């Protein structure tokens, strides 16, 4: 009887683990520069393309996350499912477009970078902040 109970528990465990989706992850580092020099302490906002293209980035209130640049001018983003990437049973199956933006003191976008990324990828993109006119 104990053997039968153990075998049934093993079968249930195998079935449950076979049905589970993997937690997809990707990483994006955003390098922010102005006049070719890294800029620290700047907030970079993350947007997920929802079919509107970069139009959704005109207002930072539409952002799905943010990170500040470090001393080297790099903001690091960990993209995870289900918030950023769709859960998938096969890593790297689907890709998604993300926009990373910076804004000036008046909340006007002054820099943007676009990246298409799949789960499991690590990418670096650059934003050159425009000078005030």
Description of the structure:
The protein is mostly beta strands. Helices cover 14% and strands 41% of the residues. The chain has 1 helix and 8 strands; from the N terminus they run αββββββββ. Strands 1, 2, 5 and 8 form a 4-stranded mixed beta sheet that branches. The chain has a 4-stranded antiparallel beta sheet with strand order 4-3-6-7, with no helix packed on it. A hairpin with a 2-residue loop joins strand 1 and strand 2 (37-38). The chain is elongated. The protein starts with a helix and ends in a 5-residue tail after the last strand.
Keywords summarizing the entry:
single chain, 133 residues, 4-stranded mixed beta sheet, 4-stranded antiparallel beta sheet, elongated
Beta percentage is 35-45%
Structural class: mainly beta
Straight-line N-to-C gap: 81 Å
| Low-confidence residue ranges | none
Shape call: elongated
Please describe the biggest sheet, giving its number of strands, its sense, and whether it closes into a barrel.
4 strands, mixed
Q: What would the average pLDDT be, to the nearest integer?
A: 84
Q: What is the CA-atom radius of gyration, in angstroms?
A: 20 Å
Overall number of strands:
8
- Give the count of helical stretches: 1
The ordered H/E elements are HEEEEEEEE
Q: Considering DSSP H and I runs of 4 or more, what fraction of the residues is helical? A: 10-25%
